[in-house]
Amino acid sequence: MHAMKLVVVTAGLTQPSSTRLLADRLAEAVVRRLDGHEAAAEVRVIELRDLAVDIANNLVTGFPNARLRAAIEAVTQADGLIAVTPIFSGSYSGLFKSFFDVIDNTALAGKPVLVAATGGTARHSLALEHALRPLFAYLRAVVVPTAVYAAAEDWGGGGDPFTDGLGERIGRAAEELAGLLPRSAPRQSPDDRPGGEPGYDEVVPFEQQLAALRPLS
């Protein structure tokens, strides 16, 4: 089974943090859905708090060190991305924005992305739509329709594991991201297939296609 690369970027500043908790729940939900589609994923979590100094140095010097370069490469080479930030002053955190500032603005083109955020109050939930979604639209990523916001009251006291609809939103967003991830098997040559028949990834010359359409004499 071909394993996809799922990278989780979380910008929580404390340890543990509700931002990391939400990121983990989203990753687990995506993996479960992929498993239901008989697909596998390798999950890598990038904690931006551990890279804060590296990101600041990159902004000043223009060059990433080895640790930051590895994180950037993981994000740009991922099949899918989950990006989670705390909301400060009605928008994403400065650390979150700074990380994506040091990534080339064409590197995420066409990449499926699930965006999510945490905050102290539900009043900041629209930051997903007026801040995060435009950011990744500018980077030309493919953002799934459902963005997930978790306020302080979402953690505990409800009927499902994540309370009051958060679990449902996590599941819906995970299903959307899983549906966008590539699940194709590695290419095979004709000799590898039963009977040596051509596969869908082979190109049949136009002349050959045209000859097949001519009536037999």
From TrEMBL:
Keywords: Flavoprotein, FMN, Oxidoreductase. GO terms for molecular function: oxidoreductase activity. Pfam families: FMN_red. The keyword Amino-acid biosynthesis does not apply. Residues 180-201 are annotated as: Disordered. It comes from the Bacteria. The keyword Cytoplasm does not apply. Residues 4-155 form the NADPH-dependent FMN reductase-like domain. PANTHER family: FMN REDUCTASE (NADPH) (PTHR43408:SF2). This is Oxidoreductase. It comes from Nonomuraea zeae.
